[in-house]
Known about the structure:
253 residues, nine-stranded mixed β-sheet, 6 helices, alpha+beta, three-stranded antiparallel β-sheet
Amino acid sequence: MKFALIDGVRRVPAPGLFGTCPIYAHPMVAKCGKIRVHHWAHQGSPTCDPWWENESEWHRTWKGHFPEEWQEVIHEAEQGEKHIADVKTGREWVIEFQRSPIKPEERHSREAFYKKLIWVVDGTRRKTDAARFSKALSSGSTVTGFPAMRRIVADGCALLREWSSSASRVFFDFGEGGRIWWLLSKGAGKPVYVMPFPSAQFISNHLGQTNEFDELEKLAEGLAANTERLLAQSRSAPLPQFQAYRNPRRRRL
Length: 253
């Protein structure tokens, strides 16, 4: 964890510091070694949040784009269940930066718990994911009316197969710096639609008061539905009938 409480104040880890867990007040110790990213660890007990994953520099870099008061926010349901959101924006969107493997059951549980959830998934964790995504992208087709959007089949890309059943917004980060990829109009076992999205715009849209995601998502889903409808019509259309050619000059003997 990036923050623990010391005398009721959130503090980042530093050598020799001791604090308490912000959820259940368990004792925590600052871990400031040379290998792993500096973090707070629970003393003598496992993490208080079973959904929490060990953080990397990738996590910290993404979280660092947002105000500290938005980072590691405790989200409590009406029934009393508590979890720590990576980022919770001013418009109540929860952004989870996911690097480690996650089972579908846990993913669905998080989506049901947070309601307004956005995933940013590290596409570099497995060595083959970026290459397979690129191959699926190159074999896909553009969408009329939205050239940046592509229709692709997810069968050959494990990353797309794993996340195509998500009910939340999903973005893939392949370490390209200036852009991430938005997984649009998805569905398990169906072709998926993706489009590049500027990383800076993703951040600024959440920091500001504008919200371009809703309009883009609505547009993309409409175009995807229309594309699938046209493809279905073309597949069901009867094939033209051709009559056998007869040479009018040929006489029967």
